[in-house]
What we know:
It contains 18 helices and 20 strands. It has 479 residues and is α/β, with parallel strands linked by helices. It has a domain at 2-9 and 67-377: TIM Barrel (Alpha-Beta Barrel). Strand 13, helix 9 (243-264) and strand 14 (270-273) form a beta-alpha-beta unit. The longest helix is centred in the middle third of the chain and has 22 residues, at 243-264. The radius of gyration is 23 Å and the shape is globular. The model has no long low-confidence stretch (mean pLDDT 97).
Amino acid sequence: MFRNTMPRYEVLSGQAIDALDKAWRRLVTEVGVEFASDRALDKFRAAGQRVEDNVVFLDPDFVLEQVAKAPREFDVAARNPANSVHIGGDSMAFGAVYGPPFVRQGAVRRDATMQDFRAFTKLAQSFKVLDSAGGVICEPNDTPLDSRHLDMTYALQTLTDKIYMGNVVSGPNARDTIAMSEILFGGRDAIERTPVTISLINCNSPLRWDDRMLDAQFEYSEANQPVVLTPFILMGAMSPVTIPAALVQQIAEALSGIALSQLIRPGCPVIFGSFLSNIDMQSGSPTFGTPESATGLLCTGQIARHFGLPFRTGGAMTSSQVADAQAGYEALMTLLPTFLAGTNWVMHSAGWLEGGLVAGYEKFIVDVELVQMMQEEFRPLDIDEGTLAFDAHVEVGHGGHFLGAAHTMERFRDCFYRPMLSSSENYERWMRNGAVDANGRAEKVYQKKLAEYEPPPLDDAIRTELEDYVTRRRRELGD
């Protein structure tokens, strides 16, 4: 887990924050938010909110009262305590890509499989810079739809000893994640005392929370497991085309979902979520790594801090079909503001391609390199007698060089960041070594990591109990 102590980059004036505040209040009061769940409607109705059909017209002061119940910061426990994370404040935690139905290996784009899911899980375990493999790293299309969440959760729990994300396709899937977490961590009391999983609850933007996501939200919030209440906004499609309007809608959606979690269980942990980009107005396709998404990301961080909430946004996103130059610069266009904003929970940190349709092996490695470099860049400087290096100037004198200076010899092994992927060879040497480009080098890195992978230790009795649970539930589900 990385602690970002650099100053936050804030782009909204006090006047702008006031204007956004007035606008979201008007939106939830006059237009309202739809909740496709009788349980959710009953919660809001019992709390004195006006409900018409499935639409809740919210009192903004009531919303803020509920939001104030959520913790500003909280811990999430990993089965290896060294990999537990803190969410909020200066902490940044990073997870891999989430959701793609396809994978790319080199020139091959194909359906994702369970073998791919396990491979990406192993890669996430292999890189310290990643705090989590995530959840649906890719969608294993070779496993039964009704039970694949069991295989994915089992892989996350056994192939890594880091935190993991819960399944949110339905209430029963969420209950399975919770039950398996109870097995892994020693019971319901243990996971309620310190949460062990984070789950993504997406809003069906604009202004609608659907029944399946809400069913999962009820399960996780009742169990005191944090949920990321995330408006899914592509400007021009799921929101108006202007950034201020998208921000207002995002606030209304996120705060309404957070208010529901606090009605379910006051004080349960939540994360202010944001997935904000735009569409190409010529083709209608989603675009990522855009200037507009970067601006929205910076605004989101400031807005979440305004409400005293930990937040999720950013990642290493791109619309590119392959891990090429476009993929690199678009990923950096999203990652840099992710750090500048001080994002607490960063999904899609490694592997995202083609607007999230594809998990790329080579792109995974490129993104890990980017995250490592960003973390190095955002470490504060140590300024002391040793780093000021006056003695080195005395030793070298005028017109000399510092290659052999004592100061250099003491520090040369770790004085600069050493990339695992970049090449700084001269042209002749690079040609002699096969003229391998970044994609080719990334291929070698991930293959080497997978070959060297060793599963983290797990008590045999716990493993057996998890396996028995998966077998029983698969049978009950008819698979």
